What does this fold into?
Amino acid sequence: MAATPRFRNDAVAAPDADPHLDPARDSASADRKHPVDETLPPLRMFTSGLQHVAAMYAGVVAPPMILGPAVGLTPKETAFLMGASLFTAGLATLLQTLGFWRIGARLPFVNGVSFAGVTPMVAIGKDRGHDGIAVIFGAIIVAGLLGFLLAPYFCKLVRFFPPVVTGTVITLIGVSLLPVAFNWSQGGNATAGDYGSTTNITMAAVTLVIVLALRKLLRGFLQQIAILLGLVVGTLIAIPVGITDFGAIKDADLVGFPTPFHFGAPQFEAAAIVSMCIVMLVCMTESTADMLALGRIVDRPADERTIEGGLRADTLGSAISPLFNGFMCSAFAQNIGLVAMTKVRSRFVVAAGGGILIVLGLVPVAASVIALVPLPVLGGAGIVLFGSVAASGIQTLATAALEKGENALIVAAAVGIGLIPIAAPDFYHAFPKDALVVLDSGISTGCVVAIVLNLAFNHLGRKPDPEPSERETSPAAPH
It folds into this structure.
């Protein structure tokens, strides 16, 4: 990905430029907004926001689809949880993109239900019905409030995220998401009779080719929404193929509101709270890495204050979500891939996506239209999206001075350990279930290993060499 210019008011003119030639141009350049803060025309805002929703929809509704049957909810109650998850994902996304006070990263940062919490939530609420949901919600509220209090301290870890760490983590984010795209491409449900069928995989391949062709052939705005267009075309092709399910539209209500505490008042159990607090720390670690990745992609590096605001939005969104029957919220890395691919950096586009999510949560029949996109079609597009994240990580690693010190060793060990949950899913099967919250996340384990090794090799016992960017921008020594 080509480097993009930074938008700074204090930028120094190039040595061969004459600032007196065109003062009007210099003034306009100084007043120009950063692309992150730019607004787009309404149609572009809506379609680009809808593209973000399409990329994340399956990830938002999957956790309640898994949790509902596990705790003993009826199909209708599970559908209610799915609508509530869309609604709360929209609220959390607005907190991140628009923000207020010191809450919100104010980056094109999408929030939704965290997959990290699915396993412990199933363990907490299994076969307990409404009581199980109430205990889960109570634990999430406590974990969210604790995370909110820890955000000002947790954000200081940013100093331990140089390019060798951030590049490793961004690469792992992309690589860790690719199995999700492969699973979607096969059909999404491993117990289904057509899982991995030639029909499903062919539809994924066709969608992938369509997206790539649209990116190559289109220009301007249409090129930016190539993913959305690819999903539409792929879905239309899937209708005569017979893998598009219209049942969701027939059964959906026209209007629905996630009634506060629909399953009863939250209950607070110590073991459940401890489990969800661990999940919250994992989510905060991953969100920190995601913000650093997104900051590099949009050319607005995430500093401590940005990360603090982003973590506050994550944790406050998580604490509020149970009020509306939602779950723990965290960053959606697949949307970072969408930003990297489309080059649309406006946070207001993602805010529009947050508004669409709220509408989908309030109008189930509208949400069912998005659900028409077959998973194989989504999987084909997902390969491009998630691969874009990994490519951004590799680009960051290219600036990490791997030829110096033990940086290459840090990357090798962190990536190797981070790939264990992907390459060998049962590797940690003998470990306690609570430990699996961290160990089953390749992003978390890889991040921790990269941070620890960077401290050991580049901080303890000797002063680390300056990063290439620091050497380039540091003032010249006096003569």
In short: The radius of gyration is 23 Å. The CA atoms of residues 90 and 355 lie 6 Å apart. Strands lie at 111-113, 329-331.
